[in-house]
């Protein structure tokens, strides 16, 4: 049997307050966001993507990030991240005292054009001043690499070589971490292996985060395969599975933090996560979101 | 990267018409069952558990199995199974010309007492005349081993040694195949490894079927781990995920046939399953079941 004690301890980055809310139709009130983030930091989550800053804002869902950062109770040992969209956004993020800067790009030309409004090369150049200045301010940068497996706008799959090419450019700029997103949610462990085979020749496993969507039900299979076979231990997840799938209304998107934590715990990793607190944090969002949560654990009645 | 061409081709046993319907609240009309089974055999599924026979019937959901078997169109190359509960049930199953006999037991004393109304030893002895006579009639027997990982009625986990002890008794009777059920739906790949490490010392991988519930979202992770790491290629699944979880209303139970087939296909196994036909087969049940299907693929709109 696999000896899991030799594997690195899984590290979960909670993305519900930014990526999750961004993809919800409803606008969650600022106070509820602050309560959600504080509940997350109290549940054992060590890294939380808490907002977004920049002129080209992503929608009304994230317009209150300055207020959110002002009102959360910073917990010792927890890192608070924010997506930064431009240099003005970086000013606001520095003002908000974020712990890490997130930037966005994609190895898919179609995705870059459609979502980021420019060709890949141009979207990457836009990131350079942000990453450079963040570095001078001693803030690490993490790149979200959207559509790293399949692309909702490109007819065919995205090649691992294309992902690695983008990662190489980002590394040269000084980006420290890479979150590879299965935006469509159809990636299989075999596609994960194909990407990691190539990617881990360039970056260490500790620099890699995998951001799986559970749209086709394979998120946990992918995460466990990456962890057990490649020693990749960084994963993005959203409490309750908030966020849905941006390309298919009603369909699950982000894998749920509690589902992923349970999968690791059941696989022998000593996860120090309070499941009851995570469940309550998600449950408190339901009236604001206007729909039930897609996570598996939220549907199970525990005795 | 893993070379999947060295792995045995996955074999799926469709359990919706028996195990699935048995756990639904609604009673599906006979005609709809017949249409469902014929749609399944037309979609590329090669083995279908189509009904149950016996005096102690499992409920009104399966009371019409004789009529179902009389009316389905037998498709060349497809095996039609039925659960047999007693010797009178075997008479009816022989009359119905089933291709394989299913019997039920559990390695959990609490489950055996509660669901099968007797201690383990006694439930196994009840199976002996059924399996013996089926063997004389040249019909293979397959045992469903309920609560093979966790038990909903026993406080703690079910030990792999207890599963193997039951399997040993069944082998001695002449049972050819063993379907190990994660009745609670919380098993992790690590629990699957613990069981298969022990079980495959006694039986060949081709004799093993794994029957996963997706209650905690780990069904596909478990199936892919068993396949890639142990060469176990037999899996039970229900079209649309029909059946739910018998212990938690509204929660997903049986992993969906289409989700499992997609996971194998995306992992490189050449599955000859018609996804569109499977989807339509499940969709036709919705008015009879009175609820939407829990499968992942049934929620995605394909273009």
Short description:
Chain A has 303 residues and is α/β, with parallel strands linked by helices.
Model description:
2 copies of one chain form a homodimer. By secondary structure, chain A is α/β, with parallel strands linked by helices. Chain A has one domain: Aldolase class I (TIM Barrel), CATH 3.20.20.70. In chain A, 39% of the residues lie in helices and 14% in strands. Chain A is built from 12 helices and 8 strands. Chain A has helices spanning 16-22, 30-41, 65-71, 87-95, 109-115, 120-136, 160-173, 189-199, 219-230, 257-266, 275-283, 286-289, and strands spanning 11-14, 47-53, 79-84, 100-105, 141-145, 177-181, 208-211, 234-237. Chain A has an 8-stranded parallel barrel with strand order 1-2-3-4-5-6-7-8, surrounded by 7 helices. In chain A, α8 (189-199) links the parallel β6 and β7 (208-211). In chain A, α6 (120-136) runs parallel beside α7 and α8 runs parallel beside α9 (219-230). The longest helix of chain A is centred in the middle third of the chain and has 17 residues, at 120-136. Chain A starts with 10 loop residues before the first strand and ends in a 14-residue tail after the last helix. The mean pLDDT of chain A is 94. At the A-B interface, α8, α9 and α10 of A face α8, α9 and α10 of B.
């Amino acid at each position: 049997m696999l000896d899991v004690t030799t594997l690195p301890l899984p590290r979960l980055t909670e993305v519900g307050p930014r990526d999750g809310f961004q993809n919800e139709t409803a606008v969650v009130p600022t106070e509820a966001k602050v309560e959600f983030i504080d509940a997350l930091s109290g549940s054992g989550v060590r890294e939380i993507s808490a907002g977004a800053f920049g002129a080209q804002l992503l929608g009304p869902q994230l317009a209150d990030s300055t207020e959110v950062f002002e009102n959360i109770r910073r917990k010792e040992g927890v890192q608070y991240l924010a997506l930064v969209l431009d240099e003005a956004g970086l000013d606001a993020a520095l003002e908000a005292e974020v712990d890490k800067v997130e930037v966005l790009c994609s190895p898919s030309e179609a995705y870059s054009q459609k979502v980021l409004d420019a060709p890949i090369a141009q979207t990457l150049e836009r990131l350079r001043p942000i990453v450079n200045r963040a570095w001078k301010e001693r803030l690490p940068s993490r790149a979200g690499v959207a559509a790293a497996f399949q692309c909702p706008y490109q007819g065919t799959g995205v090649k691992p070589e294309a992902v690695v090419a983008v990662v190489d450019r980002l590394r040269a700029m000084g980006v420290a971490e890479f979150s590879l997103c299965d935006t469509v949610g159809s990636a299989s462990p075999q596609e994960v292996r194909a990407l990691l085979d190539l990617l881990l020749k360039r970056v260490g496993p500790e620099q890699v985060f995998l951001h799986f969507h559970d749209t086709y039900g394979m998120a946990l299979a992918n995460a466990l395969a990456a962890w057990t076979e490649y020693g990749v231990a960084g994963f993005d997840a959203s409490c309750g599975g908030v966020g849905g799938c941006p390309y298919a209304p009603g369909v699950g998107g982000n894998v749920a933090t509690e589902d992923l934590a349970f999968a690791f715990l059941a696989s022998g990793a000593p996860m120090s996560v309070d499941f009851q607190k995570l469940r309550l944090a998600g449950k408190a969002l339901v009236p604001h979101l206007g729909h039930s949560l897609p996570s598996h654990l939220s549907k199970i009645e525990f005795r």
